[in-house]
Amino acid sequence: MFTAIFNKSKPINLVLASLLLVFGFVIFQIKSINLFNWNNFSYNLFELSIAVLSLMIIEFIVKKNSISEQNSFVVMFFSIFTFCFWNSSETLPLMLSNLFILLALRKIISLKTQTNTTQKIFDAGLWICVAALFHFWAILFFIVLYISIAFYSSDYYKNWLIPLVSVFVVFTIITGYEMIMHNTFYQFSNTTIVRGFHDVSSQIDIAIMIFFSLILIVSLFFLSASVKSKLQKNKMSFVVLLFALLVALIIMFMAPNKSVSMLLYAYFPLAVLFTVFFERIPKVPLQSLILYLLLFTSVLLCFLS
């Protein structure tokens, strides 16, 4: 049923994907006995609103840049992956940071049109800086921005300096605010680098890591000759998303507060890569089997986490 619905690109599919997000959110709230805690209601509602807004941005990126075929599998997979996120102790800062990274990726991917390049680079740098205010290591997505500049507009040297202007603008605004309100400079949090995965020690966390590792391995394994024609049509968008996925994994390795929730940055590029694999499955029953297996596993991990 899900496969047949999301196999077509319709506006209602975004609503259904949003309901999947709400479903995962409610499951965790019931499990943690927070659903009827009215003191946290507005906070929880804001978290959920950020998640739905992120989904809308992803839908826009996918459709505007023809990243997938005429279907809604990317938003569906993103919603399913998010089931494993709601148990984070810092849900809101990470979701806000990821929201601004999605806005940055929207600008970065659109550089391929070769129009308004300067404005897009500035906007992307600005969004990355804002994302870093909520989680410092999101600053590493400047790597993706500079790689895209090298791909699309390396011949114009001033483009290499524009991200620095974005950094200066955000730094000036936030420093001015902090000096006026608190008479001090802005203090970034989570700036240290911690090796190892000491925080990922529970069996459920390990199971979630294995779950996403298998999805990544399958996606990368089939991202070869079987999808060569698709990559030729939209090659650079996939290259940008592959680098975004790599940066997301680097953040996971470097961040001091390691947890499976740090995989949030990887959900969008991973959903895109898995969709490329999923679209190439020739038989609908097999697609349905894989989809239900993913959904069941995500719900189970959400309950057990």
Q: How are the secondary structure elements laid out?
A:
Elements lengths: L1 H5 L4 H21 L9 H24 L8 H9 L9 H19 L7 H18 L7 H11 L9 H21 L20 H19 L6 H6 L1 H20 L9 H16 L4 H21 L1
Helix pairs in contact: 2-3, 2-4, 3-4, 3-5, 4-12, 5-6, 6-8, 7-11, 9-12, 11-12
Question: Can you describe what's shown?
Answer:
It is a single chain. By secondary structure, the chain is mainly alpha-helical. The chain has one domain (2-304). Helix content is 69%, strand content 0%. The chain has 13 helices and no strands. α3 (41-64) runs antiparallel to α4. The radius of gyration is 19 Å and the shape is globular. The model has no long low-confidence stretch (mean pLDDT 82).
Main features:
305 residues; 13 helices; mainly alpha; globular
Instruction: List the uncertain runs.
Output: none
Class inferred from helices and paired strands: mainly alpha
Portion in helices: 55-70%
Number of alpha- plus pi-helical segments: 13
The major pleated sheet works out as: none
Question: What distance lies between the first and last C-alpha atoms, to the nearest angstrom?
Answer: 28 Å
Radius of gyration from the alpha-carbon trace, in angstroms: 19 Å
Strand tally is 0
Mean pLDDT equals 82
